[in-house]
Amino acid sequence: MNRDHAIIIGGSIGGMLVARVLSEHFKQVTLIEHDELNHQTSFRPGVPQARHLHALLTRGLLLIEELFPGFQNELVLQGTSKVRHGTDFRILYPSGWNPPIDTGMFMYPATRPLIENTMRLWLRTYTNIAWRTGERALSLIPGPKSSVTGVRVISGDLTADLIVDASGRNSRSPRWLTDLGFSPPAETIVDARWGYASRLYRRPVGMNGGWKALLSMPKPPDHFTAGIMQPVEDWQWLVTLAGVVGRHPPTDETGFLEFARNLRTPLIYEAIRNAEPLTPIHGYRRTANVRRYYERLDLWPEGFIVLGDALCAFNPVYGQGMSVCAIEAMSLRRALEQPHRQRFCQTFQRSAARIVDGPWMMATGEDLRWPETTGGERSFATRFMHRYLDRVIGRLPEDPATFRRFGRVTHMMAPAASLFHPSVLWKVAIGRPKNTQADTNPLPHAAESPVPSLGTESTPPSSSLPAAPRSARAS
Ligand SMILES: Cc1cc2nc3c(=O)[nH]c(=O)nc-3n(C[C@H](O)[C@H](O)[C@H](O)COP(=O)(O)OP(=O)(O)OC[C@H]3O[C@@H](n4cnc5c(N)ncnc54)[C@H](O)[C@@H]3O)c2cc1C
Asked: What residues does each domain of the chain span?
């Protein structure tokens, strides 16, 4: 493969991470993005999910930091703050509240536009990366020996040595490949019919609840709703309510609050009922897990790869999508660093499939707990995992070591297999599942070190921000 020009279809999280990687190896990189973009783009049609909470897990955050050094710092400059998993971020598991200990995992919660804009600002400083915004990729251009050599857009044909499809859930690659005479990939859809509704609120100054962010999880098989709130930039709270198997949160004022009031903990409701709403309530329903098995195709066009949500879109409840994009981008970087290989693209496609295997198993496995979930297979292994994880989760409120380990898995810093470590296994084997904490139990606070709280941040930080000429904040 020559390394003169690479084209990426889609200029969102997956596309930008890959652009950064390809800029190290190709003379010129072009991002084709359907939406019109600038460095302060707010919500846009190409990423309708952006209104909803986008947790960037520790693994994704660290990888993005590696590609964009200073990324976390920039998020802080834009008004976000560090949220530690365990002490600042409190979780009501089916078995009760997490123990208030620092797990070492952390986030800098931000709105999705801020995450994107921050990355886009960085990319603008790379002279070999060009953007073609407001332009839609229409099809692939075939080359010799079953290869792909370009992309057709309305204004003409663009040729390249490598074309990457990072166009998200609605990717047209199955159709484009069929048009070129390739087989379409097999596809699996596992749908637990999760639905979201989200709203931004002004964070009240001086509130001290002993937490910065909260998550109330559902409790299969009886409790179908979840809620999460996080502090994001500009002294706001982003609140996302969610319901599984069609128990979707309403998008009207009264219904939204009532839904929050009926979560397993009243804390989110109590926080928002008198808070000032800053946006309307936005709903979202397209949450099915969708996986396309490109790696199984015998014949694959050289010069073409598919990644991000275009390859595998997860139920967003588990917060994996952006981190998986980052892992795939890093894998592509490693592949490009090796001496030129035969069948580069097919080999990469197979390694990308191995990357999504774990998160796919995690997301679909959890969704298959609900009898109403469609697609997928409730195999013996799935049922065994449910029973094993029930026992692990049952221990979390009272077992700091297991909670710490579970936190690492949640943040993709350790594989799910690490929950089978002997130190967990023997406790699970000899202990009885606990699940004893009542939902109404109060939030336990840290004994020695007080939980950092909103109350410690008595004034909005935005006033102390340096004037940011490069502001990535959405207007
Ligand atoms: C409700 C919801 C909440 C989520 N929450 C989280 C979370 O908490 N944490 C997390 O990590 N992930 C979350 N995700 C997943 C996350 O949004 C995706 O995994 C991530 O955006 C994937 O990035 P991507 O670049 O592959 O695709 P996308 O972000 O979907 O971007 C695709 C881009 O391609 C462009 N495009 C599409 N077709 C064309 C074309 N033909 N030509 C040119 N441009 C095109 C679009 O305009 C868009 O910019 C959530 C998803 C949803 C639905």
From this structure: 5-54+112-190+288-355, 87-109+193-286+379-462
Ligand 1 atom 51: residue of nearest CA: 316
Q: What is the arrangement of strands in the sheet containing 137-143, beginning at the earlier edge strand? A: 137-143, 147-153, 156-159
Options 3.80.30.20, 3.30.530.20, 3.50.50.60, 2.40.50.140; CATH for 5-54+112-190+288-355 is 3.50.50.60
- Average pLDDT, whole number, for the chain? 90
Query: Cα(287) to centroid of ligand 1, in Å?
Result: 12
CA of 15 to the centre of ligand 1 (A): 10
pLDDT higher than threshold 60 for residue 188: yes
Q: Is the pLDDT of residue 473 over 60?
A: no
Q: Indicate whether 456 pLDDT > 90.
A: no
Calpha distance 31→132 (Å, rounded): 6
Are residues 268 and 216 in contact, defined by beta-carbon separation less than 8 angstroms?
A: yes
The model's pLDDT over 161-177, given as tens digits with 9 standing for 90+, comes to 999 999 999 999 999 99
Matching fold, domains 5-54+112-190+288-355 and 87-109+193-286+379-462: no
- As a whole number of angstroms, the distance between CA 312 and CA 321 comes to 9
- State the closest ligand 1 atom to the C-alpha of 307, by its place in the atom list counted from 1: 26
* C-alpha 94 – ligand 1 centre gap (Å): 29
3-state DSSP call for residue 46? coil
Residue 340 CA to chain centroid, in angstroms? 32
| 131-160: pLDDT as tens digits | 999 999 999 999 998 899 999 999 899 999
Burial environment of residue 352 by CB neighbours within 10 A (0 to 12, 13 to 18, 19 or more): buried
Which of 238, 207, 251, 297 is closest to 111 using CA atoms?
Answer: 238
The arrangement of secondary structure in 87-109+193-286+379-462, i.e. its CATH architecture, is 2-Layer Sandwich (3.30)
The larger pLDDT score, comparing residue 448 to residue 465, is at 448
Q: How many angstroms does the Cα of residue 13 sit away from the middle of ligand 1?
A: 7
Confidence (pLDDT) at 130: 97
What's the pLDDT tens digit per position in 51-67? 999 999 999 999 999 99
**∠ Cα 306 308 159 (to 5°):** 40
* Residues 235/460, Cβ–Cβ less than 8 Å: yes
**Stretch (H or E) spanning 115:** helix 112-124
